[in-house]
Write a structure and sequence with these properties.
Layout: E1 3-4, H1 11-16, E2 37-44, E3 59-63, E4 66-68, E5 72-74, E6 81-88, H2 97-111, E7 117-123, E8 127-134, H3 137-145, H4 172-184, E9 190-197, H5 208-217, E10 221-226, H6 246-255, E11 259-261, H7 268-279, E12 283-287, E13 298-305, E14 311-313, E15 317-319
Parallel strand pairs: 6-7, 6-9, 9-10, 10-11
Antiparallel strand pairs: 1-8, 2-12, 2-14, 3-4, 3-13, 5-12, 7-8, 13-15
Length: about 325
């Protein structure tokens, strides 16, 4: 499947109707009428090593400052896993696409099990679904082979949208939003968005907050891979100055993931292995929140550990279901 995603005008209208995703192709949403909140978390020691030997008694959970009873606790890493791999193919990543393709081939081969699914999206001047959700390594590898530079022509978004007049080059926030709402929202089990990019967004119709909210509502963790090609930012006097990883860090931390930096001591292959290890070393914590709070509003979650030398990594909260 090779579909062009609309990222400028009418995001919701396009996907709700006959545009990029026909209704007959979309799986029916699964609705569970149980007020149960599930949290996936990882725990690390001071050296960054994953800790997988904790019990329920090692955790204390708070929602909006009020302690909650943990009713379900498991380290069952056999829960179905859905992975969305989002690859930046904008002009600044042109020299990195080959390495990203090769590393992702190996990542999919190693991480996917029988019950797992994955999809592939590229984004540059626009987002493109290169492979819809599948368990087939053959189809995923064929999708990776279709990764191509998508730098656009520096045009403008048509129509009176909030970002009209901004150059279109890397629609990162739109890609995250669409992956969460159109692919992840109807999935069950563990869900992870793996985002490979240098972190610069140019021309998205939506902002970072919308991308984070969409991921939170879809119960999806964002793992960001910060990969910068300094040659793409070279100026007259030498290497150009690239922006920070601030947007990636915010999206990852708010959803329970983290940012990985590709560098001399940490290759893309090694980072994929680290993400794979983390996804297979999570605790699943479930609770039924006490009554109160506004329906549909955001509720803050805090997990504390009895051992203060350990650090827990989990999403910051969730959006309560409306009646």
């Amino acid at each position: 499947m090779n579909m062009r995603w609309i990222t400028a005008v009418g995001l919701l209208a396009a996907f709700a109707g006959h545009a990029a995703f026909p209704q007959q192709d979309l799986p029916a949403p699964i609705r569970v009428d149980v007020n149960l909140v599930n949290i996936l978390c990882s725990v690390r020691d001071k050296k960054g090593g994953l800790i997988g030997t904790l019990t329920k008694d090692d955790f204390t959970l708070f929602e909006d400052g009020r302690q909650q009873e943990i009713k379900y606790f498991t380290r069952d890493t056999d829960l179905p896993l859905t992975i969305g791999l989002l690859v930046d193919v904008s002009g600044s990543q042109a020299n990195l696409i080959g390495e990203e393709r090769q590393a992702a081939h190996q990542f999919f081969s190693q991480v996917l099990r029988k019950k797992d699914m994955a999809f592939l999206i590229s984004f540059g001047a626009e987002s493109e679904l290169l492979q819809d959700s599948t368990n087939s390594l053959k189809l995923l590898h064929e999708g990776l082979d279709r990764l191509r530079l998508n730098a656009g022509v520096g045009g403008l978004h048509p129509g009176p949208v909030p970002t009209a007049g901004r150059p279109r080059g890397t629609v990162m926030f739109d890609a995250v939003y669409l992956a969460a709402t159109e692919r992840m929202a109807s999935e069950v089990g563990r869900k992870a968005i793996v985002l490979i990019t240098d972190g610069d967004d140019q021309g998205s119709s939506l902002d970072r907050s919308a991308a984070i909210e969409a991921a939170q509502k879809a119960d999806s963790i964002i793992y960001s891979i910060y990969y910068v090609d300094n040659r793409a930012y070279m100026g007259r006097g030498g290497y150009g100055i690239h922006g920070s990883d601030g947007d990636l860090r915010k999206m990852s931390e708010e959803t329970g993931g983290r940012v990985h930096h590709v560098g001399r001591k940490n290759s893309l292959d090694q980072i994929f292995k680290q993400i794979q290890e983390e996804m297979r070393s999570q605790y699943s914590i479930g609770y039924t929140p006490r009554e109160g709070g506004s329906p549909g509003g955001f509720r803050h979650i805090e997990l504390r550990l009895a051992d203060k030398n350990l650090k827990v990594q989990a999403r910051k909260g969730y959006y309560a279901a409306k009646p």
